[in-house]
Amino acid sequence: MDFPSADFPPTAATPRVLVIGAGVTGLVAATVLAERGARVSVIHRPDPAGRASHFAGGMLAPWCEAADASPAVAAEGEASIPWWQARFAGTHRAGSLVLASPRDQGELDRFARRTARHQALDAAAVAALEPDLAGRFPRGLFFPEEAHLDPRAALAALADRLAARSATIGEGEAESFPDDGFDHVLDCRGHAAAPDWPALRGVRGEMLLLRCPEVTLARPVRLLHPRIPLYIVPRGGGIFMVGATMVESADRRPVTARAAMELLNAAYALHPAFAEAEILEMGSNIRPALPDNLPDLRREGRVLRLNGMYRHGFLLAPALAERAAALLLGRSATMASLPAASPKKGEA
Amino acid sequence: MLVYGTELRSRLLLGTAQYPSPAVLAEAVRASGAEVVTVSLRREGVAGGGQGFWQLVRDLGVRVLPNTAGCHTVKEAVTTARMAREVFSTPWIKLEVIGEDDTLQPDVFGLVEAARILSAEGFQVFPYTTDDLVVAGRLLDAGCQVLMPWGAPIGSGRGINNPYALRSLRAHFPNVPLVVDAGIGLPSHAAQAMELGYDAVLLNTAVARAGDPVRMARAMARAVEAGRLAFEADPMEARDMAAPSSPVIGMPVFGA
Q1: CATH classification at residue B110
Q2: How far apart are CA A183 and CA A185, in angstroms?
Q3: Could you give the CA distance from residue A134 to residue A126 in angstroms, rounded to a whole number?
Q4: Domain that holds residue A267
Q5: How many domains does chain A have?
Q6: A113 touches chain B (CB under 8 A)
Q7: With contacts defined as CB-CB under 8 Å, which chain A residues touch B53?
Q8: What are the chain B neighbours of A201 within 8 Å (beta carbons)?
Q9: Beta partners for A44?
Q10: Quick one: residue B147, left, alpha or beta (phi over 0 = left, psi -120 to 50 = alpha)?
Q11: Residue B43 pLDDT exceeds 80
């Protein structure tokens, strides 16, 4: 690893920040810091498949998420849509569609009551939005303002932007990194930081990538179910991401048969043509979560830790990165900030 | 309520699944006054990775009743129970043997068999069963000292589907602690179970999936208490006054 520390000694005008972790939290934070003039170095572990972001759905769905999440998620997540649109051309603002099987229509009513900024659709309106789903669902909910992106492509785009701003990104372990030369360290390691943040726990998620050229969807579809709510996100080129389970476990085993069945069932329930899909990938990883399932910042000396994105990394990373940048660079955030940090409930 | 020699003051038992967050779960448990929470080992903690969540549950400071949710066979249920005893250091086990995947209806045959095995191993078994009277008797024969019949299928929130059957269980087993487990959707359902003379109510989804779980936990606690007080107060019988019981000829007319 070669960081240009010798060439440009740090000055007060250009603070140097080491970001640990190149998942969505780390790369978004690095981007925000670099845009504010900091000289940023990112170090990360070698394997991209070790990152939770690699398996994310990539839905920018603040209003849908409000069905089960704290209102802060919707309030802070909204700004992520223009943030990603400005930085990643593959951000599609085509809305989200929420459907339920005829038996589970009650779930749709519950979802509608708990959320805002949606339109009720009848069968014809569902078909008008997604012609391939014509005749399959009696009604649905449409959240026209929501967006989606391909997480892997989006993170690659951020890495390119960082490189263009002379930020360095390299492999390495935090422990082995030389301690000198940086004004600040921003720890964005996700669940790997659990030893340094005891309240962090892992929430396992499992997902599939399918190729099914017979089906075309323009937007993510959420399929409500009393026990196993799942979603399908079109990645383009006939590829779909089906996710994601939520298991209170930090187990990193491969996808279980049960999870695969549930995910495949969801795809099949959406459209029977998914029975003929190729399974391109089955993946699992660990969401880092704090007791209130909301992200938080914690300062320990020179190190600022940003963690706990849970299932909202792409949605909340921009807002939290702005807050981290304001703390590190001493300037006010340009985006709405989360309420002042307070001790988390249930945290020692 | 006395179960397996343990005195419980609260007659509300809470499940720990499906809450918006562990922080909300903790608040809901406090608001409910529950002294016992159930926790699933199988779904939540594959291969021991559930330590983080289990620790949060232990930190609630209430008694943990581990369950075998998600087990479909006697063997799975017995293995999970043994694991639970290690993880939570308790002989208590809420025994679930699922017979049908969609409704999560208990396989009562497997349930009786697993109850027999576990009771013989020293477990104190809380069987999740249907409202079938004969199965209840078999579970007691197998060594269970508490019965947990359903009100309705798990997570359905339909309330008490068959009050007659639950009344019958209560009448046949006046000295066995009986807990309505599953199917409760509203405080009125919980109160009804208690009015039938049940010793306690165990619920999860009704609180966890409410828009405000903490408020609903409080509502359930009060409903359980109200239903219990009503049962102890010996409520009046409903009377049918739609049909007059005596002729109304010669109604006295005063004045005018």
Answers
A1: 3.20.20.70
A2: 7
A3: 7
A4: 96-144+201-289
A5: 2
A6: yes
A7: 201, 248-249
A8: 22, 52-53, 55-56
A9: A171
A10: beta
A11: no
Contact B23 A227 (CB under 8 A): no
Q: Bridge partners of A223? A: A99, A230
Does the pLDDT value for residue A145 go beyond 60?
Answer: yes
This model of the complex carries an ipTM of: 0.79
Q: Do A249 and B50 touch (CB under 8 A)?
A: yes
The helix-helix angle for B108-120 and B74-88 (nearest 10°) equals 40
Cβ atoms A213, A240 nearer than 8 A: no
For the record, the structure tokens of B18 come out as 């499906």
Model confidence, pTM: 0.85
Q: What is the CATH number of the domain that holds A238?
A: 3.30.9.10
Q: Is A251 found in the same domain as A166?
A: no
Position A267 pLDDT exceeds 70: yes
Q: Give me the pLDDT at residue B55, please.
A: 83
Query: A-chain residues within 8 Å CB-CB of B209?
Result: 110
Q: Closest chain A residue to B26 measured between Cα atoms? A: A346
Could you give the percent of chain A with pLDDT greater than 90? 73
Is the CB of A293 less than 8 angstroms away from the CB of B21? Answer: yes
Give A113's contacts in chain B (Cβ within 8 Å): 211
Model pLDDT, residue A3: 36
For B100-124, write each residue's pLDDT tens digit: 988 899 999 999 999 999 999 999 9
What range defines the domain where residue B118 resides? Answer: 2-232
Interface of B with A (CB under 8 A): 20-24, 26-27, 43-53, 55-56, 59, 155, 209, 211
Catalytic residue flag (residue B75): no
How far from A241 is each of A209, A258, A282, B202, CA to CA, in Å?
A: 5, 17, 10, 37
What are the binding residues of B for 1-deoxy-D-xylulose 5-phosphate?
155, 182-183, 204-205
CB contact under 8 A, B44 and A249: yes
Residue type, A225: H
Residue B245 counted as domain residue: no
